[in-house]
Write a structure and sequence with these properties.
- By secondary structure, the chain is an alpha/beta fold.
- The protein has a single domain (3-220), classed as Rossmann fold, CATH 3.40.50.150.
- The protein has helices at residues 3-17, 25-33, 43-55, 70-79, 92-104, 118-128, 145-155, 181-195, and strands spanning 60-64, 84-89, 111-115, 133-138, 156-165, 199-208, 211-220.
- The protein has a seven-stranded mixed sheet with strand order 3-2-1-4-5-7-6, with helices on both faces.
- The radius of gyration is 17 Å and the shape is globular.
Protein backbone atom coordinates (compact mmCIF):
# COMPACT_ATOMS: atom_id res chain seq x y z
CA UNK A 1 0.00 0.00 0.00
CA UNK A 2 1.27 3.47 -0.88
CA UNK A 3 0.39 6.98 0.17
CA UNK A 4 -1.50 7.30 -3.11
CA UNK A 5 -3.76 4.43 -2.03
CA UNK A 6 -4.27 6.00 1.39
CA UNK A 7 -5.22 9.31 -0.19
CA UNK A 8 -7.68 7.63 -2.55
CA UNK A 9 -9.45 5.97 0.38
CA UNK A 10 -9.58 9.27 2.27
CA UNK A 11 -11.16 10.86 -0.81
CA UNK A 12 -13.68 8.02 -0.98
CA UNK A 13 -14.58 8.40 2.71
CA UNK A 14 -15.01 12.15 2.33
CA UNK A 15 -17.18 11.79 -0.78
CA UNK A 16 -19.37 9.16 0.88
CA UNK A 17 -19.76 10.57 4.38
CA UNK A 18 -19.06 14.32 4.34
CA UNK A 19 -21.67 16.54 2.73
CA UNK A 20 -20.74 19.36 0.36
CA UNK A 21 -21.95 21.86 2.95
CA UNK A 22 -19.68 20.34 5.63
CA UNK A 23 -16.61 19.92 3.45
CA UNK A 24 -15.21 23.48 3.66
CA UNK A 25 -13.66 23.24 0.21
CA UNK A 26 -13.40 27.03 0.07
CA UNK A 27 -11.47 27.13 3.35
CA UNK A 28 -8.92 24.64 2.06
CA UNK A 29 -8.71 26.48 -1.28
CA UNK A 30 -8.08 29.81 0.48
CA UNK A 31 -5.40 28.26 2.70
CA UNK A 32 -3.63 26.86 -0.36
CA UNK A 33 -3.95 30.13 -2.27
CA UNK A 34 -2.45 32.02 0.67
CA UNK A 35 0.45 29.54 0.78
CA UNK A 36 -0.26 28.35 4.30
CA UNK A 37 1.51 25.08 5.17
CA UNK A 38 -0.56 22.12 3.91
CA UNK A 39 -0.89 20.66 7.41
CA UNK A 40 -4.62 21.03 8.06
CA UNK A 41 -6.30 17.90 9.37
CA UNK A 42 -7.88 15.87 6.58
CA UNK A 43 -11.66 16.11 6.00
CA UNK A 44 -12.32 12.72 7.67
CA UNK A 45 -10.22 13.80 10.64
CA UNK A 46 -12.06 17.11 10.82
CA UNK A 47 -15.37 15.26 10.84
CA UNK A 48 -14.03 12.99 13.60
CA UNK A 49 -13.18 16.00 15.77
CA UNK A 50 -16.66 17.37 15.13
CA UNK A 51 -18.34 14.08 16.07
CA UNK A 52 -16.27 13.64 19.24
CA UNK A 53 -17.07 17.18 20.37
CA UNK A 54 -20.74 16.72 19.53
CA UNK A 55 -20.92 13.31 21.23
CA UNK A 56 -19.75 14.66 24.60
CA UNK A 57 -21.90 17.77 24.30
CA UNK A 58 -18.87 20.06 24.23
CA UNK A 59 -19.78 23.73 24.63
CA UNK A 60 -16.36 25.11 25.59
CA UNK A 61 -13.38 24.00 23.49
CA UNK A 62 -9.71 24.93 23.57
CA UNK A 63 -7.62 24.63 20.42
CA UNK A 64 -3.86 25.14 20.31
CA UNK A 65 -2.83 25.74 16.71
CA UNK A 66 -5.40 27.49 14.49
CA UNK A 67 -3.50 27.67 11.18
CA UNK A 68 -6.17 28.70 8.62
CA UNK A 69 -9.12 27.79 10.81
CA UNK A 70 -10.15 24.52 9.13
CA UNK A 71 -10.27 22.39 12.29
CA UNK A 72 -11.52 25.42 14.23
CA UNK A 73 -14.61 25.61 12.04
CA UNK A 74 -15.34 21.89 12.46
CA UNK A 75 -15.17 22.35 16.24
CA UNK A 76 -17.19 25.58 16.22
CA UNK A 77 -20.00 23.85 14.37
CA UNK A 78 -20.12 21.25 17.15
CA UNK A 79 -20.46 23.66 20.09
CA UNK A 80 -23.66 25.22 18.76
CA UNK A 81 -25.09 28.67 19.44
CA UNK A 82 -23.75 30.04 22.70
CA UNK A 83 -20.75 27.71 22.64
CA UNK A 84 -17.18 28.93 22.26
CA UNK A 85 -13.88 27.74 20.79
CA UNK A 86 -10.83 29.54 22.22
CA UNK A 87 -8.02 29.04 19.72
CA UNK A 88 -4.37 30.15 19.71
CA UNK A 89 -2.31 30.93 16.59
CA UNK A 90 1.28 32.14 16.74
CA UNK A 91 1.49 33.53 13.19
CA UNK A 92 -0.42 36.81 12.63
CA UNK A 93 -0.79 36.17 8.91
CA UNK A 94 -2.21 32.70 9.46
CA UNK A 95 -4.57 34.21 12.01
CA UNK A 96 -5.76 36.80 9.49
CA UNK A 97 -6.56 34.06 6.97
CA UNK A 98 -8.31 32.06 9.69
CA UNK A 99 -10.48 35.03 10.71
CA UNK A 100 -11.64 35.46 7.14
CA UNK A 101 -12.44 31.75 6.81
CA UNK A 102 -14.26 31.67 10.14
CA UNK A 103 -16.30 34.72 9.20
CA UNK A 104 -17.21 33.33 5.79
CA UNK A 105 -18.44 30.11 7.42
CA UNK A 106 -20.60 32.10 9.86
CA UNK A 107 -18.70 30.97 12.95
CA UNK A 108 -17.31 34.30 14.24
CA UNK A 109 -19.63 34.40 17.24
CA UNK A 110 -18.39 30.99 18.34
CA UNK A 111 -14.63 31.57 18.02
CA UNK A 112 -12.25 33.55 20.24
CA UNK A 113 -9.04 33.68 18.18
CA UNK A 114 -5.98 34.83 20.11
CA UNK A 115 -2.69 35.63 18.37
CA UNK A 116 0.68 34.93 19.94
CA UNK A 117 2.85 32.10 21.31
CA UNK A 118 0.58 29.67 23.11
CA UNK A 119 3.04 29.04 25.95
CA UNK A 120 3.08 32.77 26.67
CA UNK A 121 -0.69 33.12 26.42
CA UNK A 122 -1.89 30.00 28.22
CA UNK A 123 -0.85 31.36 31.66
CA UNK A 124 -2.98 34.43 30.90
CA UNK A 125 -5.91 32.16 30.07
CA UNK A 126 -5.42 30.29 33.34
CA UNK A 127 -5.42 33.63 35.19
CA UNK A 128 -8.80 34.46 33.64
CA UNK A 129 -10.25 31.42 35.46
CA UNK A 130 -12.46 30.51 32.49
CA UNK A 131 -15.22 27.94 32.53
CA UNK A 132 -13.47 24.55 32.36
CA UNK A 133 -13.04 23.19 28.85
CA UNK A 134 -14.93 20.13 27.62
CA UNK A 135 -12.42 19.29 24.90
CA UNK A 136 -8.94 20.43 23.90
CA UNK A 137 -7.39 19.86 20.48
CA UNK A 138 -3.60 20.29 20.33
CA UNK A 139 -2.08 20.67 16.87
CA UNK A 140 0.80 23.11 17.17
CA UNK A 141 4.62 22.97 17.39
CA UNK A 142 5.38 19.39 18.36
CA UNK A 143 8.34 19.87 20.74
CA UNK A 144 6.01 21.63 23.20
CA UNK A 145 3.21 19.03 23.18
CA UNK A 146 3.87 17.88 26.75
CA UNK A 147 3.69 21.47 28.01
CA UNK A 148 0.49 22.09 26.06
CA UNK A 149 -0.99 18.91 27.50
CA UNK A 150 -0.19 20.07 31.05
CA UNK A 151 -2.05 23.34 30.47
CA UNK A 152 -4.97 21.54 28.84
CA UNK A 153 -5.28 19.28 31.87
CA UNK A 154 -5.22 22.28 34.21
CA UNK A 155 -8.03 23.92 32.21
CA UNK A 156 -10.26 20.85 31.71
CA UNK A 157 -13.27 19.58 33.58
CA UNK A 158 -13.53 15.96 34.76
CA UNK A 159 -14.72 13.90 31.82
CA UNK A 160 -13.16 16.26 29.25
CA UNK A 161 -11.22 14.97 26.25
CA UNK A 162 -7.72 16.09 25.26
CA UNK A 163 -6.72 15.18 21.70
CA UNK A 164 -3.16 15.62 20.41
CA UNK A 165 -2.45 15.29 16.69
CA UNK A 166 0.69 14.05 14.90
CA UNK A 167 2.06 11.80 17.64
CA UNK A 168 3.23 8.85 15.49
CA UNK A 169 5.22 10.79 12.89
CA UNK A 170 5.83 7.91 10.45
CA UNK A 171 6.89 5.69 13.34
CA UNK A 172 9.48 8.11 14.72
CA UNK A 173 7.83 8.04 18.15
CA UNK A 174 8.98 4.42 18.63
CA UNK A 175 12.36 4.75 16.90
CA UNK A 176 15.13 5.79 19.34
CA UNK A 177 17.38 6.75 16.43
CA UNK A 178 15.02 9.60 15.54
CA UNK A 179 16.06 12.64 17.56
CA UNK A 180 14.41 15.54 15.76
CA UNK A 181 12.20 17.91 17.75
CA UNK A 182 8.97 16.30 16.60
CA UNK A 183 10.04 12.78 17.60
CA UNK A 184 11.41 13.92 20.95
CA UNK A 185 8.27 15.96 21.57
CA UNK A 186 6.05 12.97 20.80
CA UNK A 187 7.95 10.72 23.20
CA UNK A 188 7.92 13.41 25.90
CA UNK A 189 4.15 13.65 25.50
CA UNK A 190 3.67 9.88 25.88
CA UNK A 191 5.90 9.84 28.95
CA UNK A 192 3.98 12.72 30.53
CA UNK A 193 0.59 11.14 29.83
CA UNK A 194 1.73 7.73 31.07
CA UNK A 195 2.84 9.27 34.36
CA UNK A 196 -0.32 11.33 34.83
CA UNK A 197 -2.83 9.69 37.18
CA UNK A 198 -5.61 12.15 36.33
CA UNK A 199 -6.16 10.82 32.82
CA UNK A 200 -6.78 7.58 30.97
CA UNK A 201 -5.49 7.55 27.42
CA UNK A 202 -4.71 5.70 24.24
CA UNK A 203 -3.27 6.53 20.83
CA UNK A 204 -4.31 5.44 17.36
CA UNK A 205 -2.14 5.16 14.25
CA UNK A 206 -3.65 6.59 11.07
CA UNK A 207 -2.87 6.49 7.37
CA UNK A 208 -4.45 8.70 4.75
CA UNK A 209 -4.01 11.95 2.88
CA UNK A 210 -1.68 13.13 5.65
CA UNK A 211 0.54 10.06 5.41
CA UNK A 212 1.38 7.74 8.34
CA UNK A 213 0.72 9.42 11.64
CA UNK A 214 -1.73 9.21 14.53
CA UNK A 215 -3.33 10.96 17.46
CA UNK A 216 -3.45 10.59 21.23
CA UNK A 217 -6.74 10.92 23.05
CA UNK A 218 -7.00 11.27 26.83
CA UNK A 219 -10.02 11.48 29.11
CA UNK A 220 -9.68 13.53 32.27
CA UNK A 221 -10.84 11.41 35.20
Amino acid sequence: MTEENWRRVDDYIAAALISEEEAQEETLAVNARENLPAIDVSPPQGKLLHLLAYAIGARHILEIGTLGGYSTIWLARAVGDGGMVVTFEVDPRHAEVARDNITREGMSARVDLRVGPALAMLPLLVAERPEPFDLTFIDADKPNNAAYFAYALKLSRPGALIIVDNVVREGAVADPSKTDGGALGARALFEAVAAERRVEATAVQTVGAKGWDGFLIARVT
